[in-house]
Amino acid sequence: MTKKNLSVQNIVATTSLNVKVPLTKLARSQPNTEYNPETFPGLVLRIEEPKSAVLVFSSGNLVCTGTKNRKQVREVIDQVIKQLKKVDVKVKEKPIIKVQNIVASGKIDMTINLNLLALELENVEYEPEQFPGLVYKLEEPSATFLLFTNGKLVCTGTKNRKQLKEVMEQLKKNVKEAVKRIG
Questions:
Q1: What is the pLDDT of residue 112?
Q2: What distance in Å separates the CA atoms of residue 50 and residue 60, rounded to the nearest whole number?
């Protein structure tokens, strides 16, 4: 699997700032926020560059989505900290960022008969009347794939590029073995 066949679309990362955040005050002072505590306990803070959204909780916990690499995650968290300074929230230590999930899209260089593949692979959901993709859950290493007839795919569930590479290699191996069994 080459890098050009796979590209990260979204990284979900979490961190804790270890300080309390006054969400109402933040929402009133920053135009790039959405806060409706009656329906959700967190505040959504939108960052323009790199384009992303951060869930900010009063506990100081953050969930960052929309970035495509760890460097962008760090940039976004730093921007959030700058915005918090404007409402007198002082973050004293550099937050430790933990990647929770990577979503990547790509392709394997083969046309896939999803009906036959659904019969040959385990941990598969395929309802072509409902959705044109096959859902394949890989257990070890753990990941979930959406596979399409044209070889295009979406992968979710990995936490770093090494895992992403491993699951892609395992997917390709499993699909090739299944195709051989089909004949």
A1: 86
A2: 21
Q: What is the pTM of this model?
A: 0.88
Amino acid in the structure at residue 67:
T
Domains along the chain?
Answer: 13-99 (3.30.310.10), 108-182 (3.30.310.10)
Strand order in the sheet with 143-147: 33-35, 43-47, 52-56, 61-67, 6-16, 98-107, 152-158, 143-147, 134-138, 124-125
E strands, the chain, in order: 6-16, 33-35, 43-47, 52-56, 61-67, 98-107, 124-125, 134-138, 143-147, 152-158
pLDDT above 80 (res 183): no
Please answer whether residues 12 and 99 qualify as being in contact, where contact means their C-beta atoms are separated by less than 8 angstroms.
Answer: yes
